[in-house]
Design brief:
The chain has 349 residues and is α+β, with helices and mostly antiparallel strands. It has three domains: 45-55 and 257-343, Elongation Factor Tu (Ef-tu), domain 3; 63-90 and 219-252, OB fold (Dihydrolipoamide Acetyltransferase, E2P) (Beta Barrel), CATH 2.40.50; 98-214. It is built from five helices and 14 strands. The strands form three sheets. A six-stranded antiparallel beta barrel has the order 1-10-13-12-11-14. Helix 2 (92-117) packs antiparallel against helix 5 (192-218) and helix 3 (124-149) runs antiparallel to helix 4.
Length: 349
């Protein structure tokens, strides 16, 4: 009985194991891709992935110096004109220095105007009066000298008094000469070298004002071209860093005409012909195929930077970048990815 029961039990266990394994095995279901793959457009073609950008290329607006953001004048999606204010930084210290420099300009200009207006009409009468006074003193000294020289008996006068009165005449004559010279100098006006120095001081003060104004203008970031704000990463009260940033403070460009930048694998670069025809479709809408117009090649082959996220995508490669123009009526946004089919020479991949 035992000899018969053990094989039956083993066979039952085997059948149960097979049944259990079959129930636990996953059901293989053939799933359709979420999006239909792009269609083939040419007998021989190069497949490439492209990134949509503005016709002017996407411009990452940056700062020459870092600072605190005190005003943000635009937002994403806004249309701006060349020279329009985008945002500004704190400039209180420069404004205070500008006021000081402008005061220096006013002072230098007033000093120059004073030199140019010299002599004042009111300064001439006092100078003439000093001449008249010197003449009167000279005349008095001459009278005193003639009186003492008229004495015939030299013993009646002291030689010292005679010499003193002669020196008084000479002194009065010198004072008259000095007064007349001062009047001539006053009428001649300001000496030209003094004017040149005053003009140079004024120009220096004005140059300092211009320098401060230039520093203030650097803190006011303005649009370099007419275009649209694609992305705005500036916030009021934040500290904005200068230089090249991984995430630009403001991204802008002209979106009335869009381009797509296609990355052609370096292995296929030899198959590409200048001006080759191309078609493209936006990711997720392969049914809509757009005819693209060749714009230009950027002939330097660079490391691949634009990644599509496909599991089979190669990232350790270099690519040749080619720009194509999109139709004006295409409902596409900058930054979208496109699958491109480019007419090629040689066999298809």
């Amino acid at each position: 009985m035992l000899k018969v029961g053990m094989p039956i039990l083993a066979a039952f266990a085997l059948i149960l194991s097979i049944f259990s394994v079959q129930r636990m095995a996953p059901n293989v279901v053939r799933a359709e891709p979420p999006f239909a793959p792009p269609k083939t457009s040419f007998p021989n073609q190069i497949e490439a992935v492209g990134l949509v950008e503005s016709a002017t290329e996407n411009i990452g607006v940056s700062l020459p110096i870092s600072g605190l953001v005190t005003q943000v004048a635009v937002q994403a999606g806004a249309s701006v004109h060349k020279g329009q204010l985008l945002f500004s930084l704190d400039d209180r210290d420069l404004q205070a220095e500008l006021s000081l420099r402008q005061t220096s300009v006013s002072l230098s200009r007033s000093r120059l105007d004073k030199l140019k207006a010299s002599p004042r009409p009111e300064e001439l009468p006092p100078a003439q009066a000093r001449i008249d006074e010197a003449k009167a003193q000279l005349e008095d000294a001459n009278v005193q000298l003639r009186m003492i020289e008229a004495v015939k008996d030299q013993r009646a006068i002291r030689q010292q008094d005679l010499l003193r009165r002669r020196r008084a005449v000479e002194t009065s004559q010198a004072r008259l000469d000095q007064a007349e010279a001062n009047l001539r100098l006053l009428k001649a006006g300001t000496w030209q070298p003094d004017l040149d120095v005053a003009i140079a001081e004024l120009r220096q003060a004005e140059a300092q004002v211009e320098r401060i104004e230039a520093d203030i203008s650097r803190l006011q970031v303005r649009a370099p071209i007419d275009g649209k704000i694609l992305q705005c990463e500036v916030r009021l009260g934040e500290f904005a860093q200068s230089g090249t940033l991984a995430q630009p403070l403001i991204l802008m460009g002209q979106v009335n005409q869009l381009h797509v930048r296609a990355d052609i694998d370096e292995k296929d670069a030899w198959r590409f012909q200048h001006g080759a025809k191309a078609t493209g479709s936006v990711r997720g809408n392969s049914a809509s195929v757009l005819q693209l117009q060749f714009v230009r090649i950027e002939p330097y082959v660079i490391p691949k930077r634009n990644l599509s996220g496909d599991s089979t995508e190669r990232v350790d490669t270099r690519v040749l970048q080619v720009l194509y123009k999109l139709p004006a009526e295409a409902a596409i946004y900058p930054g979208q990815q496109m699958d491109l089919s480019i007419e090629a020479t040689g066999g298809a991949r």
